[in-house]
# Entry
Amino acid sequence: MRAVIERIGPCRLIVRADGTHFDALLRAILYQQLSGKAAATIHERLRGAFGGRDPLPSELLTTPEETLRACGLSRQKLTYILDLARHVDEDLLPLHRVEEMADDEVIAALTDVKGVGRWTAQIFLLFRLGRPDIVPENDLGIQKGIQLAYELADLPTPRDVLRISERWAPYRSVASWYMWRLLD
# Structure
C-alpha cells in the first residue's frame, strides 16, 4: 500500500452529504447498469417531473406509472424505485437512523429493497455515510486494483479481496479508494 499511496498521492475520498439518504439511494438505483450520461438524463427528467428537485417517497408512490416511465425508467427500474419508496414510506427501511446502525445492519436493511444489492449497500456506507472500514469485495475495480498493486497473476476472488484487505483494517474505505484510483 505504501507504493500505491506514494504513486497516487493524498487520499481525496469525498463523502456525499448533499440531499437526503433517500435521494442518494434513488440516484444509486437510477445509475445501475447505465452509462453516466444516460443515467444523468433520466435522473434530470425525473427531477423535472417534480419541479426540478428529487421526489419524496410518498410523491413517487402517488405518481402515475406512465409519468415515471416517460422519464426514461425501464419497468425494472420503476419497480426498484417504487420498492425503495415503499420501504422508506412505511419505515421498513429506517433511513432516519442508519448513522446509529452497524455496517451489517445497514447492509441487511438496504438489501431488503428490490434492486439494492450488497455492492450498492457498501457504496452507500462508504460514500454516503463515510464509514471507514468498507471494502466492496465484489467490485471489479477493487479486484483489478488489488491485482495490479500486489502483482497477482490472476484477478482475486471476492474471498481473496476480503483476506488481503484484512491488513488494511480499520481503514479499508481509504484503501478501496486507492485501489480505484490505481486504475485511473
In short: The chain has two domains: 21-128, 135-182. Residues 21-128 form a domain with the Endonuclease III; domain 1 fold (CATH 1.10.340.30). The chain has a mean pLDDT of 95. The CA atoms of residues 87 and 93 lie 5 Å apart.
